[in-house]
């Protein structure tokens, strides 16, 4: 007598399917590859392959996808972080350039905040399926401390994010080069009425103390990471295709209530890499020595602490207490039960807690 335990949950059993996997199936029952799959079978001498009983033409994108698709997950994730962070900084600093160079006539500040949010929306949309679209060392850090990524991936992401941010700032500088020269008469200023360094990096308002700037960056990044934790928490059941929109809206809201003190950097890569870029472009060492070195490190160090606080505040007050339900707390597995001779005996749908 068998002692095998019955599955936890069993669907109503259909008539057993008699299918010997060692015997060839009819042509109509064969599973054909999806036409978009890079592993799909196709003829070597032309651009045709069969899919779903019909002949489909591979377009140029499909051909390049088959040829250049990167299978190493870390490599493609790093490339996604680099590109998407560069896109974010190009779009965001270009918005800043339009606001500053027009002497605040082209846009109102609310347009700047909404613009940054929309740019982040598209950046996250592009990279979320590949790397998770962190685009921010502080976000990567809170993923690290919660055990969702490892140290190697964290370091690789941070390097990629800073490189991407540097080239994003470079792109804005090239696009607005003539406008910047017209505005400051070829002299690069860090402060004053003709300052353009604020296009690329953040600087504190005159009223802001060192202690106030530290609190500003910690609190702003904590709110950012609390929001991201809530949006991506599977128990909140936010559809993945909607998450980029919510994250973009979150940044826009932060821009509306956190920007007055110091421009809401809340992202070490967003501030450090463009600041380094301005040093390379002739703004001088003052981009780092501003306020006797009592500012440049604040948007680098403090967002990391804010991420730690915000991520765990969400979990302790909200995340740990969200009710479980079958749609978010069970892993579904199909049990393919076969006889020793290979014949399919029955199929079970088994649900087990992770």
Automatic annotation (TrEMBL):
User: Transmembrane stretches, by residue range?
Assistant: 78-101, 113-133, 154-176, 210-232, 244-266, 272-288, 295-314
> What is this protein called in UniProt?
Aquaporin
Keyword Transmembrane recorded: yes
Which keywords belong to this entry?
Membrane, Transmembrane, Transmembrane helix, Transport
Q: Quick one: a GO cellular component term?
A: basolateral plasma membrane
**MF terms in GO:** glycerol channel activity; water channel activity
Compartments it resides in: Membrane
Q: What spans are recorded as compositionally biased (Basic residues)?
A: 33-44
Predominant location: membrane
What does the protein in this record do? Aquaglyceroporin that may modulate the water content and osmolytes during anhydrobiosis.
Q: Where is the composition biased (Polar residues)?
A: 12-31
- Source domain of life is Eukaryota
Source organism per UniProt: Diploscapter pachys
Keyword presence, Repeat: no
| SUPFAM superfamilies in the record | Aquaporin-like
Which family is this protein grouped under? Belongs to the MIP/aquaporin (TC 1.A.8) family.
Ranges where the record places region Disordered: 12-46
Topology in the lipid bilayer is annotated as:
Multi-pass membrane protein
């Amino acid at each position: 007598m068998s002692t095998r335990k019955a599955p936890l949950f069993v669907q109503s059993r259909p008539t057993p399917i008699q299918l010997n996997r060692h015997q060839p199936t009819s042509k109509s029952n064969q599973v054909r590859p999806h036409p978009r799959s890079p592993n799909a079978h196709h003829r070597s001498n032309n651009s045709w392959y069969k899919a779903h009983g019909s002949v489909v033409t591979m377009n140029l994108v499909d051909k390049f996808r088959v040829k250049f698709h990167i299978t190493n997950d870390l490599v493609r994730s790093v490339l996604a972080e680099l590109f998407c962070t560069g896109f974010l900084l190009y779009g965001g600093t270009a918005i800043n350039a339009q606001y500053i160079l027009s002497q605040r006539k082209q846009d109102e500040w609310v347009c700047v905040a909404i613009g940054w949010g929309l740019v982040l929306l598209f950046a996250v949309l592009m990279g979320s399926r590949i790397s998770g679209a962190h685009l921010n060392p502080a976000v990567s850090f809170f993923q690290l401390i919660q055990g969702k990524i490892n140290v190697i991936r964290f370091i690789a992401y941070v390097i990629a994010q800073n490189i991407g941010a540097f080239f994003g700032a470079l792109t804005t500088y090239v696009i607005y080069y003539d406008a910047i020269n017209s505005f400051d008469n070829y002299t690069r200023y860090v402060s004053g009425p003709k300052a353009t360094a604020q296009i690329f990096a953040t600087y504190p308002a005159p009223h802001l103390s060192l202690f106030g700037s530290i609190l500003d960056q910690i609190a702003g990044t904590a709110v950012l990471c609390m929001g991201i934790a809530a949006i991506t928490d599977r128990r909140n059941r936010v559809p993945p295709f909607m998450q980029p929109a919510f994250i973009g809206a979150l940044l826009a809201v932060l821009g509306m209530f956190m920007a007055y003190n110091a421009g809401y950097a809340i992202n070490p890569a967003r501030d450090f890499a463009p600041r380094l870029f301005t040093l390379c472009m002739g703004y001088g060492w003052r981009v780092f020595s501003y306020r006797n070195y009592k500012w440049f490190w604040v948007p680098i160090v403090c967002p990391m602490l804010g991420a730690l606080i915000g991520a765990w505040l969400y979990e302790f007050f909200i995340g740990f207490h969200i009710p479980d339900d079958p749609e978010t707390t069970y892993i579904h597995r199909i049990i393919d039960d076969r006889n020793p001779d290979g014949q399919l005996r029955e199929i079970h749908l088994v649900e087990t807690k992770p």
